[in-house]
Amino acid sequence: MLDRIAHAQHAIDDACRKLGRQITIMEVCGTHTVSIFRSGIRSILPEKVKLLSGPGCPVCVTDQGYIDAVMQLADRDDCLIATYGDMIRVPGSNGSLETRTTRGNVRVVLSSEDALQLARERPDKTVVFIAVGFETTAPATAVVVKEAAGEGIENFCILSGHKLVLPAMRTLLGGMNDRIDAFLCPGHVSVIIGSGAFAEIVADYRRPCVVAGFEPVQIVEALAEICRQLADGRAELKSLYGAVVTGKGNVAAQRIIEECFEPADGFWRGLGKIAKSTLVLREQYRRFDAFQRFGLEDGPGKDNPGCRCGEVLCGQIDPSECSLFGTRCTPAKPIGPCMVSSEGTCAAWFKYGRRG
Amino acid sequence: MCLAIPARIIELDEDRAVVDAMGNRWKAKTTLLPGAKLGDVVLVHAGFAISLVDEEEAKKTWELFAEIESFENTPNRVSG
């Protein structure tokens, strides 16, 4: 293992010498962020290699307007909120779901199936599933929407905040952050969409895209591959995660996403409105759409005062440049979602320090 | 959030499975992986198997989890 790391480090050092400038690589996956910090990868990289944690944590990229819609539903007596645990502490403009748990209408679920089961058990309430996540998570939501439709479980609906990773990468390269030289592409999103999906980024923007898993050695090797390409003036798509990811991805999962959802314009924290970047239910499943059912709008929300999570997510600033970081905003008392989520960039900086 | 864990299918009834990772067992569905068979090691995310994983890769992940767990239980840990 050590020789693999040494070999990768050698390639990275060579590239730095050859290019003589800063190399900026962005990862767009919360699990990569955690793995990079936890394993101390940043500390073995030369100063000239800068890693940015981009919009890869589903909780972090969720716009404040969506959070406020969740809170409105949590305040209704006829609703029962079913949410993945990650969302529970994200502060809206008026408290978080955690502050509503005392009313007994918020439940943490581990799976969309658990949310649908809750609807079967509680016909007296409308169960609203807080459906956030990228392409990895969207198929699980689609399955239960189809099940609810098939079984006629009408006291179930979803608040879709599902997002697509490629439009966000395009938006970043289209002017939000010109410093990004390459992407370390997400492992589990790629399981669904296939590593081949990133070919369009390589072709349209001439940026190397390398898919990696979560083993620290493989991440370092992916960074080395990126550095080699940059040093040679190449931009190619490569996957080091062949043990799990295929070029075409999980076609059954893609089909069920396609069957239930269609891409729509949507709001992202930091990135703003991005065309065709969120998933909304198709007409035939629209009655399970909580926005429609309760007449809510998924408009842009107002960020909590002073919070700079949006700029952190775009790699425009490091967390330490936010005046709230580590003082008024800490994992124990978070103000922004990047400090709430264990996969958030601010939480990782706080826990492991800037160099990881 | 996108965390996914490799686990072995130890029971399978249509698309309802019980999976096992390092002795931890839980229910998962194979709806998104129609070809999954009893004994396969699959990547499980949010209650659904999303891909097949080769045995070696799964072992590496399980070892990593075990290592993290033992490290985080150490009183000498320096982080966090």
Describe the fold and architecture.
The complex is a heterodimer of chains A (356) and B (80). By secondary structure, chain A is of the alpha/beta class. Chain A folds into 2 domains: 307 residues, 3-Layer(aba) Sandwich (Rossmann fold); 39 residues, no CATH class. Chain A contains 17 helices and 11 strands. In chain A, the strands form 3 sheets. In chain A, strands 2-1-7-8-9 form a 5-stranded parallel β-sheet. In chain A, strands 4-3-5-6 form a 4-stranded parallel β-sheet, with helices on both faces. A two-stranded antiparallel ribbon of chain A has the order 10-11. The longest helix of chain A has 18 residues. The radius of gyration of chain A is 20 Å and the shape is globular. The mean pLDDT of chain A is 94. Chain B is an alpha+beta fold and 80 residues long. Chain B has a single domain, classed as SH3 type barrels (Roll), CATH 2.30.30. Chain B is built from 1 helix and 5 strands; from the N terminus they run E-E-E-E-E-H. Chain B has a 5-stranded antiparallel β-sheet with strand order 3-2-1-4-5, covered by helices on one side. The radius of gyration of chain B is 14 Å and the shape is elongated. The C terminus of chain B is likely disordered. Classes of the chains: A alpha/beta (356), B alpha+beta (80). Chains A and B meet through helix 2, helix 7, helix 8, helix 10 and helix 13 of A and strand 5 and helix 1 of B.
Concise structural overview:
The complex is a heterodimer of chains A (356) and B (80). With 356 residues, chain A is α/β, with parallel strands linked by helices.
The CATH topology of chain B: SH3 type barrels
**Largest sheet of chain A at a glance?**
5 strands, parallel
Mean of residue pLDDT values of chain A: 94
Q: Write the CATH homologous superfamily of the largest domain in chain A.
A: HypD, alpha/beta domain 2
Query: Strand arrangement, largest sheet of chain B?
Result: 3-2-1-4-5
Oligomer: heterodimer
Under the CATH scheme, which class of the largest domain in chain A? Alpha Beta
Q: Which structural class is indicated by helix and strand composition of chain B?
A: alpha+beta
CATH architecture of chain B: Roll
Order of helices and strands of chain B: EEEEEH
Largest sheet of chain B: 5 strands, antiparallel
Shape of chain B: elongated
CATH class (first level) name of chain B: Mainly Beta
Alpha-carbon distance between the two ends of chain A: 20 Å
**Spans where pLDDT lies below 50 across 5 or more residues of chain B:** 76-80
Taken as a percent bin, the fraction of beta residues of chain A is 15-25%
Q: How many domain modules of chain A?
A: 2
Largest interface between protein chains, with number of residues from each side:
A-B, 42 and 26 residues
Radius of gyration of chain B over all CA atoms, rounded:
14 Å
